[in-house]
Specification:
The chain contains 15 helices and 18 strands. By secondary structure, it is of the alpha/beta class. The mean pLDDT is about 90.
Length: about 450
C-alpha cells in the first residue's frame, strides 16, 4: 500500500525540536506524578526521554505549581537533557502566562480558558456570539505577548468533552464544533502576529478525532496557512483496547499524511505510550509489507508479515481506521493473516480493532484517562478492577477519569463513569449527570455496577 504525502504544515520551533514543515514526526508523553514531587517528576521525565519522548508534558494545576515545573526543567537541564517541556494548563490564564516564561510550550484548552462550560444550550445572536470570541481574545492577548517575548509555543488542545456552551449551541457537540473552536484561536493568534502554534483535536471516539482533525486541516488550508497537528485519541484506555483505539485513530491519519507529532494516551506508565507510538511509526515505514482488500464489501482482509503482536495491531488498526473513517469504505468484519501468530491470536487482534471501530460491540467499551499530576488515586489499578467487573456488559460505554478537569465533559461520550476527587474518592456519573457525592472507591464501584445492570435489564 502507498501512504499519502505528508500535509505541508508551517514549521514551529519548540526549544530544540521543530514540529511540522516536513520535519520528522515527533513523539511525546505526559508525566502522571504529582508535580509538587519534583524528584519523582524529574525521574519520570528521564524515563520518558529514554523511551524516545521528544517532548514531555507536565500538569500545572495552579500558580503554586509554576515554581515546581521551573525547578523540574532546571534539574533536567543540569543533567544535560534538552528535551522541551510543555506545561499543561486548565482554567487559569494567569497560570498559563507564568508558565510561558518558564517552559518551551504551553497547552491551553479553549473550552475552559474563558467561556462558560455548564452544558447549557442558548440561542446566540451574531452580536452575542462575537462578544464571546472577543472576550476570549482579550484574555488570550497577554499570554500571546508573553509567548512572543519568550519564544514560547502554544498548543491549542480542543477536547470533544470540553467545548464551551457557545460553540456547542451553534454547531452541536460535533467534529465541526471542535474545528470551529480551534479556528477561533487561529484567528486570534494571527491577529496578534503570533504563529508558534500547534493544534490538536482530541476525542475518545477515534471517528470523531479523525473527522475533527481533517475538518480543521481543511479550514486551515482554505485560509492559506496550516499549523502543525498534534494527533491522538484521548482517554483511549489501557491494554489491547487502548492500543487498538490509538491505532485506528492515529494510524488512519498518519496513512492519510496528517500529523506532525503524536501522543498515545494509555492508562499505563508513560513509557508504554511511547513504545506503542514507535510501533505506529514502524508500520508507517513498512507499509509496502501490507496488503489488503475488502471482499464483497463486507470483510476487510489484511495480510501483514511481522513477528510482533503490537506492530500487527498498529498496522491492522491503522488500515481499518483509514478505510472506514477516511476512505469511507464500509465493512462489517475483519480478517487478519499473519504467519507468526496462531489463527486465534489473529482473530483476537481483529476483535480489538472491530471494537475500536465500533463495528462489533461484544463487550463494554472503556474510556479512561492516562492520568496526570491531578489524579489523586491509583487509576490504573481501578481501571483494571472496573474492566474485570464490567467488561461483560456488551455495548455499554464506561468512563474512568482521574479528575474533574476533563472528566465530566468526557462523560458525555459514556453511558456511565467515575471521576476522581482531590480526596481520592470517586463520583459516579450517568452521562453528564452527577448521581452520587464523592464516595469511597468500593462504594462508588458498587453503585456504578448497579446502574449498568439496571440499564442492561431495561434494554
Amino acid at each position: 500500500m502507498i501512504i499519502n504525502p505528508r500535509l505541508k504544515t508551517r514549521p514551529v520551533t519548540i526549544g530544540t525540536q521543530t514540529i511540522g514543515g516536513g520535519h520528522r514526526i515527533t513523539l511525546q508523553s505526559m508525566t502522571n506524578t504529582d508535580t509538587h514531587d519534583v524528584a519523582a517528576t524529574v525521574a519520570q521525565c528521564e524515563r520518558i526521554i529514554s523511551a524516545g519522548g521528544d517532548l514531555v508534558r507536565i500538569t500545572v494545576p495552579s500558580m503554586e505549581y509554576v515554581q515546581d515545573i521551573a525547578e523540574i526543567k532546571k534539574q533536567l537541564r543540569s543533567k544535560g537533557l534538552s528535551t522541551p517541556i510543555v506545561a499543561d494548563v486548565h482554567f487559569f490564564p494567569k497560570v498559563a502566562e507564568a508558565c510561558a516564561q518558564e517552559v518551551e510550550k504551553v497547552r491551553v484548552n479553549p473550552g475552559n480558558y474563558t467561556d462558560k462550560r455548564i452544558f447549557d444550550y442558548h440561542e446566540y445572536t451574531e452580536a452575542e456570539y462575537q462578544e464571546g470570541i472577543d472576550k476570549m481574545a482579550g484574555k488570550a492577548r497577554p499570554l500571546l505577548e508573553i509567548c512572543k517575548k519568550n519564544h514560547t509555543a502554544i498548543r491549542v488542545g480542543v477536547n470533544h468533552g470540553s467545548l464551551c456552551d457557545r460553540v456547542v449551541s451553534r454547531y452541536g457537540n460535533t467534529p465541526e464544533a471542535m474545528a470551529m473552536a480551534a479556528m477561533e484561536w487561529v484567528e486570534i493568534c494571527e491577529k496578534e502576529d503570533f504563529h508558534e502554534l500547534v493544534l490538536s483535536m482530541k476525542a475518545s471516539n477515534p471517528q470523531i478525532m479523525i473527522e475533527s482533525t481533517l475538518a480543521v486541516a481543511e479550514k486551515m488550508q482554505q485560509r492559506g496557512t496550516i499549523y502543525p497537528l498534534h494527533i491522538g485519541v484521548t482517554e483511549a484506555g489501557n491494554g489491547k483496547e487502548g492500543r487498538a483505539k490509538s491505532a485506528v485513530g492515529i494510524g488512519a491519519l498518519l496513512l492519510a499524511g496528517v500529523g506532525d507529532t503524536i501522543r498515545v494516551s494509555l492508562t499505563e506508565k508513560p513509557e508504554n505510550e511511547l513504545a506503542f507510538a514507535r510501533k505506529l511509526l514502524q508500520f508507517l515505514e513498512k507499509t509496502a509489507a501490507a496488503s489488503y482488500d475488502i471482499e464483497n464489501g463486507e470483510i476487510l482482509k489484511i495480510d501483514y508479515d511481522c513477528a510482533d503482536a503490537d506492530e500487527l495491531l498498529a498496522a491492522a488498526g491503522a488500515i481499518a481506521g483509514y478505510e472506514l473513517f477516511i476512505k469511507k469504505h464500509t465493512f462489517k468484519n475483519l480478517f487478519i493473516h499473519n504467519p507468526h501468530l496462531e489463527n486465534d491470536d489473529n482473530k483476537k487482534v481483529a476483535d480489538y480493532i472491530l471494537q475500536a471501530c465500533r463495528l462489533k460491540l461484544d463487550k463494554a467499551e472503556f474510556i479512561s484517562c492516562p492520568s496526570c499530576g491531578r489524579t489523586q488515586y491509583d487509576i490504573e489499578k481501578i481501571s483494571g478492577i472496573v474492566k474485570e467487573r464490567l467488561a461483560k456488559y456488551a455495548g455499554v460505554k464506561i468512563g474512568i477519569m482521574g479528575c474533574v478537569v476533563n472528566g465530566p465533559g468526557e462523560m458525555a461520550d459514556a453511558d456511565f463513569g467515575v471521576v476522581g476527587t482531590a480526596q481520592g474518592d470517586l463520583i459516579v456519573y450517568k452521562g453528564k449527570e452527577k448521581i452520587t457525592p464523592p464516595l469511597p472507591i468500593a462504594d462508588a464501584l458498587t453503585i456504578l455496577e448497579e446502574n449498568v445492570k439496571k440499564m442492561k435489564h431495561q434494554e
